[in-house]
């Protein structure tokens, strides 16, 4: 008889708190009250405290004087650096994967893109981000360079710890991103030159970075005008 492994109390607390941070329910700067979390998770304070220490090691939680444990504030520099690296890695991996990409999987790429459109219609940024990640994950699934795949996974995990959920996205950029996805699907379907696919994928990722920087500049000017 096959038995399923049930996470212990610390693992459970870790999984719950981590998921709430990554999906935006606990935004950057959110204070974590150990006793309150223990009551919510029906456990003692000890497993919650141990989970928080583990999340601190993951850089998802920081300790602030007089405040205690808080969700790590948005690290803009780390976000920009990580996204830039991801653009290079995913560009190369997608190009290599495109050579082996099965045509029957193209419909999955179109489905993810349609789901992104649906998420944008209701301004569900978290859902949009999840489908976007799954789209790109599929585009480079058939890359045969396993070390490269491991580096992409590690970079995505780092991005999750530094990004500011939702606020790094703008609806206008999200709409253009969807259009670029359809372009990429067409390029893969036509088996276009892998170098061209690599360049397009890299630029696609960098366009998100540029949109973030442009929005930051606009917000800074608006703030100055209100002073």
How does this structure look, described?
- The protein folds into 2 domains: 9-71, Winged helix-like DNA-binding domain superfamily/Winged helix DNA-binding domain (Arc Repressor Mutant, subunit A); 76-226, GntR ligand-binding domain-like (Four Helix Bundle (Hemerythrin (Met), subunit A)), CATH 1.20.120.
- Helices cover 69% and strands 4% of the residues.
- The chain is mainly α.
- Strand 1 (61-64) and strand 2 form a beta hairpin.
- The longest helix is centred in the last third of the chain and has 33 residues, at 194-226.
- The radius of gyration is 20 Å and the shape is elongated.
SSE topology:
Layout: H1 9-22, H2 34-40, H3 45-57, E1 61-64, E2 68-71, H4 76-98, H5 106-121, H6 125-139, H7 146-162, H8 171-189, H9 194-226
Antiparallel strand pairs: 1-2
What's the helical proportion of residues?
55-70%
What series of H and E elements makes up the topology? HHHEEHHHHHH
Tally the helices.
Answer: 9
Summing up helix and strand content along with how strands pair, one would put the structural category as: mainly alpha
Domain tally? 2
**Can you identify the CATH class of the largest domain?**
Mainly Alpha
């Amino acid at each position: 008889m096959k038995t399923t492994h049930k996470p212990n109390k610390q693992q459970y607390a870790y999984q719950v708190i981590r998921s709430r941070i990554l999906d935006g329910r606990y935004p950057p700067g959110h204070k974590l009250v150990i006793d309150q979390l223990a009551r919510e998770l029906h456990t003692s304070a000890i497993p919650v405290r141990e989970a928080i220490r583990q999340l601190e090691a993951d850089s998802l939680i920081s300790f602030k004087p007089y405040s205690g444990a808080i969700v790590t504030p948005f690290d803009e520099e780390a976000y920009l650096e990580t996204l830039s690296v991801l653009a290079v890695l995913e560009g190369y991996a997608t190009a290599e994967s495109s050579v082996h990409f099965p045509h029957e999987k193209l419909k999955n790429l179109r489905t993810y893109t349609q789901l992104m459109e649906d998420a944008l219609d209701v301004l569900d940024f978290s859902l949009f981000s999840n489908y976007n990640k799954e789209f790109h994950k599929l585009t480079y699934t058939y890359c045969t360079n396993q070390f490269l795949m491991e580096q992409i996974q590690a970079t995505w995990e780092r991005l999750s710890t530094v990004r500011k959920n939702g606020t790094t996205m703008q609806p206008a950029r999200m709409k253009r991103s969807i259009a670029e996805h359809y372009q990429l699907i067409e390029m893969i379907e036509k088996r276009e030159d892998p170098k061209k696919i690599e360049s397009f994928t890299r630029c696609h990722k960098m366009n998100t970075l540029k949109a973030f920087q442009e929005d930051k500049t606009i917000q800074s000017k608006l703030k100055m005008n209100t002073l």
